[in-house]
Amino acid sequence: MAKSKIYLKVERVDPNTCDLARGVSVADLHESLGGVAGRQAMMHPAMRPLISGLRVAGPAVTAYCAPGDNLMMHRALFLAEKGDVLVVQAPHGGAQWGDLAAAYAKEKGLEGIVVDGYVRDTNELVDLRSPVWSTLIGPNSPQKSGHGLVNAPVVCAGARVEPGDLVVADGDGVIVIPKAQAREVVAEARARMEREEQARRGIAAGGHPWFMHGCEENYRKLDIEEVDGPWRP
Predict the structure, then answer these.
(1) What CATH class is the domain 5-189?
(2) Which one of 94, 180, 212, 216 is at 20 to 30 Å from 153 when CA atoms are compared?
């Protein structure tokens, strides 16, 4: 990349939507988007949490880093605000995130960190409870002198992320909701969660998913032979 471009301001998804999204699962958001949109919004399954049991939601602050370099990540970290999710595209060598950056992010109040690339100092990150999702783990030290982009669109683990988009991450992965759709999608996801809660109450009362999900009806439409006995060679 010949020249860097840094955008100092971000048009963020509204804080109330972010607050509501923290109570919504990635799975329900994915289902609420539906079809192609839902698949495109999900980052690659290689994007995994370092610490299980966490969920974060917030507006994206983005960085694109040169191979083996994390200067643009540090610029984005410097510009990020409390509640932001730092999203870094840097799949070509050099750890983007470690214990010192995590300590600073914790003091600053960042919501989470998503790295398409390497993170390191993982024992220390766990001790810090740093909410990190990444595609790779490795100890290689990066340079801090390369060109790149900050707060411009990136493609992180296969998903397009624009600055200010809603990023939600939990144990199922990371999803990106365009900020113009975020309020509607989060509302639909919360409605889905309520329907599932009703289903759980039905199970507690003796119901069975086989009937509740329509499996019985669909099963009877298929040409299936049931054998009243064990399989034998």
Answers:
(1) alpha beta
(2) 94
Identity of the amino acid at 209: P
Contacts of 16 (CB under 8 A, 6+ apart): none
Is 194's pLDDT higher than 90? no
DSSP 111-146: -EEEEEEEE--HHHHHHHT--EEEEEE--PPPBS--
Residue with tokens 């499996």: 215
Contacts of 22-25 with C-beta under 8 Å, sequence gap 24+, read 22/55, 22/56, 22/57, 23/190, 23/193, 24/57, 24/168, 24/186, 24/189, 24/190, 24/193, 25/55, 25/170, 25/172, 25/189, 25/193
What are the structural domain ranges in the chain?
Answer: 5-189
48 vs 157: CA distance, rounded Å? 11
Mean pLDDT of 3-15: 95
Q: What is the mean pLDDT of residues 194-210?
A: 87
Task: Quick: pLDDT tens for 129-148.
Answer: 999 999 999 999 899 999 99
Bridge partners for 89 per DSSP = 64, 116
